[in-house]
Amino acid sequence: MAAAVTTPVFEDLTVGDVVAERSFDLARDSLVRYAGASGDFNPIHYRDDVAASVGLPGVLAHGMLTMGLAVQPVVDWAGDPGRVVDYQVRFTRPVVVDPETGAVVTVSAKVGQLDAEARTARVDLTVSYDGATVLGKAQVRVVLG
Fold first, then answer.
1. Which 8-state DSSP code applies to residue 137?
2. For the chain, give me the number of helices (H) and strands (E)?
3. Average pLDDT over the chain, rounded to whole?
4. Shortest CA distance to 79 belongs to which of 14, 23, 137, 3?
5. N or C, fewer C-beta in 10 Å, the chain?
6. Whole-prediction pTM value?
7. CATH number of the domain bearing residue 131
8. Phi-psi category of 115—alpha, beta or left, where left has phi over 0 and alpha has psi -120 to 50?
9. Residue 46 lies in a domain
């Protein structure tokens, strides 16, 4: 039997509340699977020699993969992907995926603003890899009950 999904209640939230935290382990095979699903077969996402030839420090995770991972904890917290009405980020640093150790992307989601009239919460994401923020101004607007 599946567990019941609990929908966050607007009145229970306060600006500054951390509503979700998660880490994602990325390996090179994660990038290959994402390339197949997205159709983005740019070789900087799977070939070290090509990445080096264009001045990159190594094979990079797809930006949209990083963006998708970052919003998932908020979607899970909201209980319904339809509650996410806006999501925006700025790509600030690449996620380099080492061939042996991979990469770990961490996400912390905190309530940044509440709009009582619209019953929405702006959730601010801190998305990091190797101690540095990789998505800037990452914000998700969620409609709540």
1. E
2. 3, 5
3. 95
4. 3
5. N
6. 0.92
7. 3.10.129.10
8. beta
9. no
> Does residue 48 fall inside a structural domain?
no
Tell me whether residue 73 is in a domain.
Answer: yes
pLDDT digits (tens, 9 = 90+) for 64-111: 999 999 999 999 999 999 999 999 999 999 999 999 999 999 999 999
Query: Are 116 and 138 a contacting pair, CB within 8 Å?
Result: no
Residue identified by tokens 């229970």 is: 12
What is the number of domains present in the chain?
A: 1
Task: From 2, 142, 34, select the one nearest 78 (Cα to Cα).
Answer: 142
Domain assignment of residue 45, yes or no = no
Distance set, CA 32 to CA 7, 29, 42, 86, 102 (Å): 34, 5, 11, 28, 13
